[in-house]
Amino acid sequence: MVLGALCCTAVLGYKAGIRQASAAAEVPTKAYVIYLGSVHLTLSVGAMGVAVIFTLTILLAAAVFLAIAARRRRRQAEVANRALTIENKERWRAEGEVHTLNAELERRVLVRTEQLDAANKELEAFSYSVAHDLRAPLRHINGFSKILQDDYGPALDETGQHYLKSVSDAAKNMGQLVDDLLKMGRIGRQELMRRSTDLNALMGRSLQDLQPECEGRKIDWRIGDLPSLECDPGLMKQVFVNLLSNAVKYTRRRENAVIEVGQVTLDGAPAIFVRDNGAGFDQRYAHKLFGVFQRLHSAEEFEGTGVGLATVQRIVQKHGGRIWAEAEVDKGATFFFALAASSQGSAQATKSAAAGEL
Amino acid sequence: MTHDEVEILYVEDNVADVELTLVALRRHKIANRIHVARDGAEALDFIFCRGTHANREFFAPKLVLLDMKLPKVDGLEVLHAIRENERTNMIPVVVLTSSNEQKDIVESYKLHVNSYIQKPVDFDQFQQVVQQLGLYWLVVNQTPLPVG
Fold first, then answer.
1. What is the DSSP string of A271-301?
2. N or C: which end of chain A has fewer CB within 10 A?
3. Contact criterion met (CB below 8 Å) for A227 and A339
4. Looking at domain B3-137, which CATH architecture does it have?
């Protein structure tokens, strides 16, 4: 503003000088001309000076302005740099923390794996020992009581013989328990060997295995079309043998035993079922059905160790599937199992006549 | 009985098992020429005529009945030693044991066992097994002529 005012004054002053000079020209004397010349010169020089000063001032102002702006920018950059450094440090720290956590995690996984390995080895040693050492005394109890029965039986009265028979039966029963438990333990440790398996063929082989149990029995087998599944055929056969063997066992008192096997679609997924018209069970206890050593019938009614269905459930669960049962006392039972979606192969549409009832 | 006449070498550490097996063999009139070794080391001494059996003249038994879990030298080691030696590698060896551990079965077969049998808990079944064993290996089966 001040600079502007100065400039204006200088310019106006110069113009006024010219006007005055023009007015005075009417008296053209040399001195006056010189005077006018010097005034003009003075005014010109003054104007130039003012212009120079003005320009310099402008330049100075611009320089100052630029310097201030540069400084501000530098400061901003410094602040940004500092923030960046802090951020970098923070990132390094975080990365370091991630590394530490990862290392810790890996260490923990290693320790857990070692512990798991050790537990597995212990379990294997345990089961090996059970298989070798626990069965032996049972064989001896059974063996010697049988020899006693055979060679000295006549010397005993009926009660004495009954006691001896109870001893050998008990040993035999415990032998069966040990064998079944070992079998189940083995399944838990066994790796699944999945491959595409035709359940119809598997069913045929399972039925062959059941021949001795079916001897002298009249059973109406109604076998529907079964799908092919991605599963462990050895283990899946155990599922069939167990379920079918149960069906044969629990229909023992039926004159016309009917055992049905087929496929149904439940919630859009195929499930296999085994149905019988045997003794059935009270649905209220269905949750106990698959527990180890859990039985819904007495051993006098139907023999068994209570390991079969627990084993079946283990196999199905190992395949990522589930098993369940529906039954009514004296009206038979139906066992269903469905494997995980990924293990369903070329499952065919339900063809079983039973499907309509479900 | 001289050692030369031994038909069955029975390797078993458990005295009750020995007694029950001998009863079963006797009842079915199988092999009264049987030698019982109570551990793996003794079994090898007997087979290779060493130690307490150093005076025995080598004669391969018709059958070795071998338990798996034995003191000192276990069943698999005995089997290995029998199969390693040229004079004994053709002797039929039948594992007769309590367990049906897959590991034992696989290892036995790798060592060319002739048969692997799990002793049934039920004595009647066990007697049947012993009878079949004796009949098959001592009567039905043909072995190469002894190598001297």
1. EEEEEE-S----GGGGGGTTSTT--SS-TTT
2. N
3. no
4. 3-Layer(aba) Sandwich (3.40)
Determine the Cα–Cα distance for residues A129 and A11; give it in Å rounded to an integer.
120
What's the distance, CA A222 to chain centroid?
A: 39
Sheet containing strand B93-97, strands side by side:
B34-37, B8-11, B63-66, B93-97, B115-118
pLDDT digits (tens, 9 = 90+) for B20-72: 999 999 898 886 789 999 999 999 999 999 999 888 888 889 999 999 989 88
| Chain A partners within 8 Å of B16 (Cβ) | 136, 140, 143-144
Q: Which of B:108-137 have CB within 8 Å of A?
A: 119-124, 126
Q: How far is A140 from chain B (nearest CA, A)?
A: 6
**Per-residue pLDDT tens digits for A18-66:** 555 455 455 556 766 677 777 677 777 777 778 888 888 889 888 889 9
- Specify whether the CB–CB gap between B132 and B30 falls below 8 A: no
ipTM of the complex: 0.83
Mutate to test the interface with B, among A123, A140, A152 (most CBs of B within 10 A): A140
**pLDDT lower than 50: segments of chain A:** 1-11, 13, 21, 24, 343-358
Read off the pLDDT band of B92 (50, 70, 90): very high
Cβ atoms B115, B129 nearer than 8 A: no
Q: Note whether A147 contacts B16, CB cutoff 8 Å.
A: no
All CATH 3.30.565.10 domain ranges of chain A, comma separated, are: 193-357
Chain A residues touching residue B120 (CB < 8 angstroms): 139, 175
Across the interface, whether the CB atoms of B20 and A143 are under 8 A apart is answered: yes
- The pair of structure tokens assigned to A123 is 């379990």
- Suggest the residue from B13, B67, B98, B118 to mutate for an interface test with chain A (most A CBs closer than 10 A): B98
pTM: 0.62
- 3-state DSSP assignment of residue A168: helix
